[in-house]
Design goal:
With 70 residues, the protein is α+β, with helices and mostly antiparallel strands. It contains two helices and four strands, in the order E-E-E-H-E-H.
């Protein structure tokens, strides 16, 4: 299974190879479970969340920012 990474800070998906951000879900990077886990747990403020590709394609980005920036 592959995952997309949503950045609450940038309000965008992580790009491929951990480079940049995009609001276009089709251009977002795809990450393995291990990569996604490493990315989201390395953020002290937990500003990223990993979402399975199928769910992200069906539902889009999160609609609620846990930090109240929405």
């Amino acid at each position: 299974m592959q995952y997309l990474i949503w950045s609450f800070e940038h309000r965008a998906w992580w790009g491929p190879d951990r480079c940049g951000y995009t609001t276009d879900i089709e251009r977002a990077g795809r990450y393995t479970k291990e990569e996604a886990g490493e990315i989201v747990t390395s953020s002290i403020m937990v500003e990223e969340v990993a979402i399975a590709v199928g769910i992200a394609l069906d539902w889009g980005p999160p609609t609620h920012d846990p930090y109240g920036r929405d």
